[in-house]
Amino acid sequence: MKYERFEDLPVWKDAVELAVQIFALMEEEAFKGKGSLRDQIERAAVSISNNIAEGFERGTTQELITFIYIARGSAGEVRSMFHLFSRLPKFSNLKSQISNLRSLAESISRQLRGWADSLQNSDIKGQRYLNEQTRLEDQRKKEREESLAEWRQMREDLTARLEAEQRQRETERKQSGEQT
Hints:
Layout: H1 10-25, H2 35-58, H3 61-87, H4 95-120, H5 132-179
């Protein structure tokens, strides 16, 4: 699926949801007086969706990959902080929520890694590099690939048909030999 807007990306939606849930968690009594911890995790959480959006809007695949990895780093920072919280006695009553949010951050990291991997193995340079010539080249390449796929299928079909005919002739030869 081709996404036209970063707001449509499932990973961006998950990142925003993570930030919303983190902001809600930070309202818990256990976080009162822990301003630096709250500030750090809130900034890291917001950084995930913001870097996805910025990379998407940049217009080149390489810049997008760079921002995906920055977003992934922020997701790692969030997970690291949740590991810390889960070990501090003050937050013991929030272990379930912390664990769930850490899992969501881990899922986001996996999604970002998969996206980065797919982009790194792609010939696409990005929207900024598209012009009429590159669009025509891409269209011709796609048509060549489709033609080659059709030729391969025709060759496979012909080979299968010839093999079936050969088996049929061998069967007929065996049957005629048995009848004499």
